[in-house]
Write a structure and sequence with these properties.
Blueprint (H helix, E strand, L loop, with lengths): L7 E7 L4 E4 L5 E14 L5 E13 H10 L5 E14 L6 E14 L12 E7 L2 E7 L7 H6 L10
Parallel strand pairs: 4-6
Antiparallel strand pairs: 1-3, 1-5, 2-3, 3-4, 5-6, 6-7, 7-8
Amino acid sequence: MAKSVNKVFLLGNVGKDPEIRSTAGGTMVANFGLATTDRTKDAQGNWQDRTEWHNIVAYARLAEIVRDYVKKGHKLFIEGRITTRSWDDKESGKKVYRTEIIVNDLSLLSGRDEGGASSGGYSRAASSSGSTASFDQRGPAGQDDVAQSAEISDDDIPF
């Protein structure tokens, strides 16, 4: 059998607060939409943005992290796999399909109180085998000019 790969990397913004529920077996599940945007030039040379919405599903510990730290507007980096579910619609009887990204790992790129800021604050990566936390020490966007103009001496370096 030929080798195959089902791996997805997404960097985007959460569209609305995640929905949290539990399965009949007690496993926590988090569902939310993640928006990614591609920017291309049209025939006239104008930039056009095209937003793609992804259905994201996190289970167990990752769902707890989503419940505790993810809100509308937050920027996330997600690693996962694509899956498609299908069922029969109760009203029409037609088969309905839904493509989802099952989260294997995620990194929170917004601070706790930041709604969609792209840098600074708390960052956390987690997987089913455990989790780690780190702090991104970069300041909010726009502080790069100040940092570059500041003089640093050997006394300022902590090592």
